[in-house]
Description:
- The complex is a heterotrimer of chains A (326), B (327) and C (353).
- By secondary structure, chain A is an all-alpha fold.
- Chain A has 2 domains: 1-47, no CATH class; 51-325, MetI-like (MetI-like fold, Orthogonal Bundle), CATH 1.10.3720.
- Chain A has 10 helices and no strands.
- In chain A, 46% of the residues are buried.
- Chain B has 327 residues and is of the alpha/beta class.
- Chain B folds into 2 domains: 3-221, 3-Layer(aba) Sandwich (Rossmann fold); 228-326, no CATH class.
- The longest helix of chain B has 18 residues, at 186-203.
- Chain C contains 11 helices and 11 strands.
- Chain C has helices spanning 59-66, 89-98, 116-126, 136-146, 163-175, 193-210, 221-227, 245-250, 255-263, 305-309, 340-348, and strands spanning 7-22, 28-44, 48-52, 74-79, 82-83, 99-102, 181-185, 213-218, 230-235, 238-244, 330-331.
- In chain C, the strands form 2 sheets. Chain C has a 7-stranded mixed β-sheet, sandwiched between helices.
- Chain C has 353 residues and is an alpha/beta fold.
- Chain C folds into 2 domains: 7-19 and 32-228, Rossmann fold; 249-348, no CATH class.
- In chain C, helix 6 links the parallel strand 7 (181-185) and strand 8 (213-218).
- Classes of the chains: A mainly alpha (326), B alpha/beta (327), C alpha/beta (353).
- At the A-B interface, loops of A face strand 1, strand 2, helix 1, helix 2 and strand 6 of B.
Amino acid sequence: MPEQPHEPEGAIAGTGMGAAMDLGVSEAETLEGTAGGPGGTGPAGRPHSLWSDAWRDLRRNPVFIVSALVIVFLVFISLWPAAIASGSPLKCDLAKAQDGAGPGAPFGYDGQGCNVYTRTVYGARTSVTVGVLATLGVAVVGSVLGALAGYFGGVWDSVLSRITDIFFAIPVVLGGLVLLSVVTSNTVWPVIGFMVLLGWPQISRIARGSVITVKQNDYVQAARALGASDSRILLRHIAPNAVAPVIVVATIALGTYIALEATLSYLGVGLKPPSVSWGIDISAASPYVRNAPHALLWPSGALALTVLAFIMLGDAVRDALDPKLR
Amino acid sequence: MLLEVRDLQVEFRTRDGVAHAVNGVSYRVDAGETLAVLGESGSGKSVTAQAVMGILDMPPGRITGGEILFQGQDLLRLKEEERRRIRGAGMAMIFQDALSALNPVISVGDQLGEMFVVHRGMSKKDARAKAVELMERVRIPAAAQRVRDYPHQFSGGMRQRIMIAMALALEPALVIADEPTTALDVTVQAQVMDLLAELQREYRMGLILITHDLGVVADVADRIAVMYAGKIVESAPVHDIYKAPAHPYTRGLLDSIPRLDQKGQELYAIKGLPPNLTDIPPGCSFHPRCPMAQDVCRTGEPPLYEVSEVRGSACHFWRECLHDRDQ
Amino acid sequence: MTATSEPILEVDGLVKHYPLTQGVLFRKQVGAVKAVDGVDFTLHRGETLGIVGESGCGKSTVAKMLCNLERPTAGSIRFKGEDITRLSGRALKAVRRNIQMVFQDPYTSLNPRMTVGDIVGEPYDIHPEVAPRGDRRRRVQELLDVVGLNPEYINRYPHQFSGGQRQRIGIARGLALRPEIIVADEPVSALDVSVQAQVINLLDRLQSEFELSYVFIAHDLSIVRHISDRVGVMYLGRIVEIGRDAEIYDHPTHPYTQALLSAVPVPDPEAREHRERIILTGDVPSPTDIPSGCRFRTRCWKAQERCAREVPALAVPAAFRDVSGPAAHDSACHFAAEGQMAAARDEDGNGPG
């Protein structure tokens, strides 16, 4: 569709100057564009769907390949940490405290004499668990609430939107300090629960907007004219077409949840020892960073790399799923 | 001569391969003349115009050949800076969708005035006065008050008038109007076309009218170039073409308009679909849809045969086509 | 195709006002968009009623109410005598089977994530009583064949088709439940000129094949004339003139219809010099603020004081009440009269476009 990809919509585009003459003010369709007609597309043309197009883009995107490899590796070590690290992360020998690299401990030892390499490897499990589960929870709660509000509209929509606004006003770290400090359980669950509690409005807002956009398509009207039930319309017609932005935002958010877990653990309200978490290790290593920088460096590096990998993956997915960038 | 396009070729790289959007288009426009470029979506009519204006998105577009002579200068050889000076002052464009072509957060007066500030170096105050004058020219009621209004405060027809005012602000020698009235209602469409035609006469501009509407063409054009699959298949003075088209595609378009004496009968319909531009049929690109196609059409690409001094048709059987109509 | 049979659909006093509200939680109504403001018409079995009008005249809203996609604010829509605006649940679902819609934009009216087979077969999922499960695939393929598509395309996705083909898919979906009425809202306006004729021919053929009644909504006057038995002209939420196609096109008596017809570009360059055109001034008033009396008076060259006071009724105007002839049809104008152009058009026997 050669006439279609970038229909210039400028004012007197000729002048090419000043905001008033800005090209591409909107994506409005012109007759020659998408609304117009078959153009050069015969029945054989463009046999792709959004997903297969996206997948094709992703496979060729080096950012995606690198971040996906990192993530696959992370998932692997969080499932089978023993495969690459021998010994227990809790087996520490104070005699070796702050020692540098040694046999079986390529990253050296931390202030408690624990093997930094082993702890960093085992810490991945916490990060990946928190990241994945919090994202799943947020995505499920957020998209269900957002989709219902967007689809049914009216009072529920207004109420939900206001609640969303309130949640957006809560500072995440402060909220974590307050809420999690009363929790005694030393598992990942309170942390995940807290993230879902504060995270869903972000997704619900995206899902709501996406559903409202999709709802306006004629195929939704067509289904309604056939007498389709609300649940059929939502599940079969709206959800598959509205899910892409949610996936994008959720993937990017996954990275930030991992960072948030580390932050909360660092502040002492997330996981606490004897749990193994990069946040705990960073917290523990920071007082003697001058003497043993390696104890801080490795968990921080692993954390940064993990967060970066997920955010880059989200970015790549967004580029691939956003038809406007094509 | 004002503008001459010679053998222009434009292609687009797409994920499905190279789309040949414009394949050797030549046309000319004189001062004071209206050339209608008629075609369906994908015919290359807009791409040609964008190449002339120099607003083609490159990439994915690429001009692979040809010349665009504007007042004797080949635009394709000019530097971007020089072309920019020609745009607006030498040639201007009117778009279909005035709402998206105007900036929603700047008042129309400022948008009109900016032309004068940028190109003529006028002061803001003088530019504002000019803007009011222009709005009066395109007959926007109460222009002096409305000059401060924003685009959304105007109706569709009024916005298209503002677009026209903007295009004509610097009195360009050539105006390209891309489906200027397609988005408008019939009664408003008539107002806007009339205004455009009148201003064109007044300024003696060359006008290229890009459209798919055979009715609009018949109303205002002097000459028509019919495009199909990136080529001009017929080019003729407007009266000749409606009387007796010399290309089966043109004939098909004219015949598919519902007419009173055919009520209750089937409409004539051109069979099939416009071709995929990444895979244009060999020979005459219209042959798979053509009722007159012979073997030669499948292999030999027809040149633009000279039907008369002012007329051309890219059909091997243009004589038969003309003849059919006479009977 | 003349329809003298019993009415299948009677629309009476149909109104749709969309409230304009202010405030977030405590909404208060500050006005209303009067999209449809009192529309009456009847549709007979086997007939095509064309509805023309410019954007914003409410014609699409009428279509939506006919298909129960919008609830009317007031008025009734009787299908075979039963008011469908008051139905709900099972009874509504049953009526829906009989009134189906064909949409304007073939690019947004088909779910891009569903195959053609799923799209055309969905009506059977929703109304399982119509076709036994094992029979559906065959029926879907039959439908594709009927609308001129290769039945083997059943597993393809909409984006693999061109606009015209997609519109055929939409029509096949509309036919699946064997409806008696099809409401077509601008079914060809998004298509290329050369493809429009194909779709119009298809609709024409299907009408006789399936004994359908059409409500055909469009802004293209020549296409409406080609396909319609009767035509209603809408302006600002009301029908201002309605009658048989020849009555409306050759003997319009409402000034708006006259202006509308004269503004249509005629594909004949010979006509442009000696053609009488009425160019209306100004724009259509906002549907939130409809003029008093006759709603067309703000743009009408015939308007007088009476027009601001009295709402003209949609009836045969007094001037034509005693004559029989094509000019004697319903027209909502106090000063209804045939224009000169009507006479001129009679001579060459050719309507606009």
